[in-house]
Write a structure and sequence with these properties.
Layout lengths: L1 E5 L4 E11 L4 E8 L5 E10 L5 E4 L2 E10 L4 E11 L2 E11 L3 E10 L6 E9 L2
Antiparallel strand pairs: 1-2, 2-3, 3-4, 4-5, 5-6, 6-7, 7-8, 8-9, 9-10
Length: 127
């Protein structure tokens, strides 16, 4: 169980996350339980094309700009131009994979700004 932070409302919701390895991708399912008790499940497929240049997460595609491999970690940095809260922005997706942990960060930099801020931070641990 993880807490999902809804930045539009400022509330944290308990979420159950499952990850399934598919043939050439990873399926991530997140079931959020909201304050009124209702649940919603979001499903996303994470994949990278064969030449490693495009990362897909759900319906979004990102250009892979950097992959850093160390003895214990794989980090992928991918970018796309788009909008955040109806404002033009550069969106950076950072995925860090270790033996028992996968972390996903979505960083936003609005046009005209020099700095990124974190919109989403998700850390998954293997039991």
């Amino acid at each position: 169980m993880v807490l999902f932070n809804d930045d539009s409302t400022g509330f944290n919701y308990p979420s159950k996350v499952t990850v399934a390895l598919l043939k050439d991708s990873v399926e991530i399912n997140m079931t959020n339980t909201y304050a009124d008790g209702h649940q919603e499940t979001e499903k996303g497929i994470l994949s990278i094309n064969k030449n490693g240049s495009i990362l897909s997460l759900g319906a979004s595609e990102y250009d892979v700009k950097d992959v850093i491999r160390t003895k214990d970690e794989l980090a992928i940095f991918a970018y796309k131009e788009g909008e955040d809260n109806d404002r033009p922005a550069t969106i950076r997706l950072q995925i860090v994979i270790r033996a028992k942990v996968m972390a996903v960060f979505k960083h936003i930099k609005y046009d005209g700004s020099e700095d990124y801020f974190t919109r989403i931070s998700l850390s998954l641990s293997k039991k």
